[in-house]
Amino acid sequence: MNAVAARQGSAGTAPAQFGLINLLKAGAAQLIVLHHLAFYGPMSGHVSALAPELMAWLTDHARIAVQVFLVAGGFLAAKSLSPSGRPGVAAPLNTIWRRYAKLAPPFLAATLLAAGANVVAGAWMTHDSISAPPTFGQLGAHALLLHGVLGYEALSAGAWYVAIDFQLYAAMVLMLWLAGRLAGGGQRPWLMPAVMLAAVSSSLLHFNLDSSWDNWAPYFFGSYGLGVLAWWASDARRKPGAVALLLAVLVLPTLAALVLDFRIRIAVALAVACVLFAFGRARLAADAGRAWQAVNALARTSYSVFLIHFPVCLIVNAAFTRYAPAEPYWQAAGMLIAWSGSLAAGAVFHRWVEVPLGRVVTLAVQHLGARPVPA
């Protein structure tokens, strides 16, 4: 859910953008915010009287939008780590550390804001969406992105995804490194597709069928791996036979998994991967129209919106519970305020927290002589 890496154009021009990925991320981010607004309430409980079917859909199905981020994450990880699908990573621990250093600082800042929002909201209302004051152990587990693994309650909705994104990226790095060791310096273009076939198949046909794995990367690697395969298959330099083989690796295990146990989230992941294969590398012109500029801005701030929307929604819920009439139209206005407030807060958080922290991390990495942090 980070800003999409873009290729720098000629001097003095804005970089071109991956238009489709930006559109998918911008739309998925809105659905995640609306899902949490509908799921956590209490405003949504009053609004259900006005639009019961819409609220039920947002509660039960809008969360499937997270599949967009999983597949896009794999697509961009392949672009960053292994654009041509070759095995090998020169410095796996450093690469994993750079990813952690990119994700964790803004996540921890947002977690602290969420802890404060829980205190404020708890003074205005009593609701099961409010967490108890965090312990030092709980904060430490969040800082290490291990809260789910260690059994701590998440302090913010969506915190699980940040930890899973880090696990998935680390798993991808380790797969590339181990495959590189097996290749022994040889090219072996078939090796990484074979590794990815094994990883995606084991995820879709085993781990993803067992919810006890949902704090671990193997549960989600099927969707993530589909994004990786979509990047490799969309390489215009590949021969048609290689493209067909990669598409078979992408599609056939997924179809088998759906026949074994149909899961709408996996069907959505497959659809997103196929769309990214067909159009994911298409770039917008740097001077795209205003609508695309808005889409790009929403995509650029999507990680910040994802991090900060829960405390914003919690505060607005508490304020409307305490001070506004418990009538559907008033509470619907509160939901709209929470939604728009989340977008505004995400833009502010991106400008004043995520970007400055990213600069600090980049300077630290450069000072240590490492490569810049990949997007």
UniProtKB/TrEMBL annotation:
Single GO MF descriptor: acyltransferase activity, transferring groups other than amino-acyl groups
Keywords for the protein's UniProt record, in alphabetical order: Acyltransferase, Membrane, Transferase, Transmembrane, Transmembrane helix
Pfam families noted in UniProt: Acyl_transf_3
Ranges where the Acyltransferase domain occurs: 21-338
Native organism: Pseudoduganella aquatica
Protein name: Acyltransferase family protein
Superkingdom of origin: Bacteria
Membrane-spanning parts: 103-125, 158-178, 190-209, 215-234, 241-260, 266-284, 305-323, 329-349
Xref: InterPro entries: Acyl_transf_3_dom (IPR002656)
